[in-house]
Structure formats: structure tokens, C-alpha cells
Write the C-alpha cells for this entry.
Amino acid sequence: MPEHWFWFLATMGCVVWYSTITVYVAIRGAMDIKHMLRRLAGNGEEEQE
Amino acid sequence: MTNFSWIDGSIVGLYIVATMIAGIAVRKYVGKVEHFLIAGREMNLYLGIASLAATEFGIVTCMYTSQNGYKNGFAGATPGILAMLAMFFVGYTGFCVKPLRDAGVITIPELFEKRYGPRIRWAAGVVIVLGGLLNMGVFLRTGGDFLVAVCGFDPKYLEITMTALLLFVAIYTVLGGMLSVLVTDFLQFVVMSGGLLAVTILILVNVGWSELVAAVQKNYGAGGFNPLVKPDMGWKYIADNALLSLAMVLTWQTTIQRLLAAKDTKTGCQVYTRTSVFFLCRWLIPVVWGIAALAVLKPEDVGDNTLLAMPTMLSRLTPVGLMGILVAAMLAADMSTDASYMITWSSVIYNDILAPFHKNQWSEKRGLIVSRSIVAIIGVFLLVYGLWYPLQGSLWDYLRVTGNIYLSSMSVLLVACCYWKRANSWGAAGAIICGAVIPTAFLVMEQLPSTQHFAKVVVGPEYSNIATYIIAATAMVVGSLLKPQTKPVAARG
């Protein structure tokens, strides 16, 4: 284990967690935007009717 | 000497064009003030995570956290650990945020009106905007400083760089409001995260973990790894940052706006818990960059301005191509932060400070025009303030003190509003006044030559901040107990 293992684990943990979450959020976030805009467009049409 | 080339310029240009197109394209969905300010409460979990992460990491964040790493070693990441714990605790327990989201309000002061009355709502709006704008006032200059240092631009172009940055952000924020902010935040999260990770890996590979540890050991000894044994940190630093972290999680308007824009309370709380680790990343990653500057640069390369140590190191270490990705990432970080902050403070101005004027009776069209105008005015303020305010001392200290103008009183008001039945308008007024006066006085004393020594050396930002929380809470308790209790109106029928 490298010197100052707490900071080593924290740094490596951050890099791994952040890499994973970036890919996951990039995929799921794009779907969220699609659904959000669809709902907003739907609401707008309902109000016009 | 910098590695910024035309290839990097093209990458940055492409990113800016894509962001502008995405930001402007969604303006057609903005039909109501609610769409403009809180995206019609249609935000889902992953978009919320991306937006909160992008908002809470700007160039300014990167600069003050890396400065903390340069000046304090790994111990400089302590506020990140505290922020992560605070985010997780609040999201997991729903402490304050659950009743806040359940109330269906647009801003925190709107909730306060239900307990403390309209005057306190208005006063809360004023201190939130005052603290928030003073805090945000240094964002542009810091962003400009970073870009000038990394790209190697002539410093005389700093103002032009700042103005162009703000103009890009203002255009899509004015047109699309929170909807544009969310969509561009998402793009910016992806670009920003890619750049941050790539540069961090480059540093870990090129500089190496052993070199980073050795640099901290050589400059700060054991104090560089443990804040409790570092003479200028200690318990007061931890207590100050713990209070700040909890207050920020509970009441920082840009964070709260994600909670309030969420489609329901459960989603809002999940955004908190699942973003909590990011609050450690947003500290620890730039702290590592700052430590890398400590390891790579000589003291004479940095001079007195430790804020520029990290960008100077990056300008030398980052190769062509990656430099473009880095600058695009940092622009993404900055633009998302600026846009979110502009829409956030405008929502408080419109919803709370202007409430006595519009009384929720203006037409949607008029409300939208006013909201957009407020965003534009905030942009002009930022430009002017950013140009003339001379930053004294540590950037993080400045941000803590200005943030505390409202964080202390608003967190006290919120906790009391949610969990103390006896809390009332007298206590709230006392907390707001005490919470605003102490940090403002500290800022003024820090600028005046006659009181500078007393403010910086005798008192220091930590004790000033801790005192602000204690006195604001005391004022809430004493004021509430002093106000005569009115008998509840008997229910009819």
C-alpha cells in the first residue's frame, strides 16, 4: 500500500467513481432530457387546446 | 510558454457553438415563468445529477480548491469530505429539504412567508441576492485569469475574454432560462468531466503519486496530510467548514433550485445522495492539481499569487490536443456555473423581492419579460463588479465570508421553520440582521488599511464565520421567545 493510504484511496476512488458516473449519467441524462422536453411539449399542446 | 495551438482553439470553438445551439434550441419550450425559473418541475434524477455537478464546479471552484491544495497539501481537501458527508446526510434523512420540497415553493423565502410573514420573505430575498451576487462577483475575473494563464493570452485581453464568456452565457440563459441551463449543464457535465479526468490521469502518470506525496511532506510535513496538526487550520477550520457545508447543502440557492425543479421529493433527495461523492471529487481532484503545481513549479515561477500556480503548471504540462479539451472542459464548467447562478438569483429577485409588486398577478408574458431582464441586469452587474473588485487574501476565504452573509441566517431560519413551532418573525429578523452584519463588517474591515490587521490576523475568517452562525441562532431563539405569543384562531364549524 502506498504511503498515506487514506489520500491514495480517496484520490483513486474519486477517479474511478467519477469515470463510471460520467458514462452512466451521460446515457441516462440524455434520456431524461428527451422525456422532459416531450412532457413540456405535451403540456403546451394541452393548454392550447 | 503554453501549448495552446489552433487545434485546441478549434476544439474550444466547436464546444462553444454546440452549447449555444443546444441552449438556444430549447427556448421554444418556455411558455411560462415556472418553465423559465424551475423548468416546469420536470427535471428527472440523472439530469439533476448532471446539472448539480456542472453547476457546483466552475473555474472558480477549480481555482480556489487547487489554491488550497498548493497552500495546504492534501489537508486542503478537508472541506470536500465535509461537503460530501453533509450532502449524503441531508439527502438520506430529508432533513429540511423534504418539508421544503413538499411545500411546493419556488424559492426558500417563499416557504418563510408561511411561517414568518411577507416582510421576512422580502428581507430573506434581499440577503440571499446580496450574498449570492457578492459571492458570484469574482467568478468572471477568476475564470478570465485561468484562461489567460493557461492559453498564454496577453493579460490585456482579460476583460475582453470575460465579457465574451459572459455574453455567450447570458444569451442562452436569457432566452431559455432554467430549461436552457439544464440542457447545457448536461452537455457541460460530459465535456467537463472528460477533461477533468483526462488531466488528472495525465498528472498522476507524468508527475506520479510519490512525487505528489514528497512535495507535500517537504513543504508542510504532517500538517499537509492532517488538518488537525496544521497550525493555520486546526479545529476552527474544520468547525467553520462543517457549518458552511451543512448550511450550503440546506440553503445554497443553486443547489436548492435542483431540489425544487425535481419532479418529486424522492427524486430531489436522490439527487442529493447520489451527487454527494461528487462533492468530494470537486475538491480532491483540483487539490491534486494544486499539489502537482507544488511539485513541478519552483517558488519563483509562482510568486505571490498562488491562485495562478495550478493554471501555470497546466500550461506547461498539458500537450496539444488535450489542452483544447482542458480549456473546453473549464469553459464548460464556468459557463454552467455562471448560467445557473444567473437564473438562480433572478428567480429570488422575481419571486421574492418583486413579490410585493407583482403579487402573482402579472401575466405570464410580462413575468417572462421581467425575469429575462433581471438575468440580463445580473450579467451587467457581474461584469462591472468583476472588473473593479480587488480580491484580498485567499479566494476560498472570500467565498466563505460572502456566502455566509446569507447561509448562516437562512440555514437557521430554515431549520427553525421546519422543526421549531415557536419560531416567529422577531427571531427571523434578528437572525437575518446578525447573519448579514457580521460577515459584511468583516469584509469591510478586511479592505480598510486601519482594520486590516485586526480582521485578518486577530479575528480571521474562521472565527468570524463561526461567530456568525452562533449569533444568528441565538438571535433566532431570543427574538422568538421575546415576541408575545398570539392565541391561535379557533377553527370554525
Q: What stands out?
A: Residues 5-48 of chain A form the longest helix (44 residues). The mean pLDDT of chain A is 84. The two ends of chain A are 67 Å apart (CA to CA).
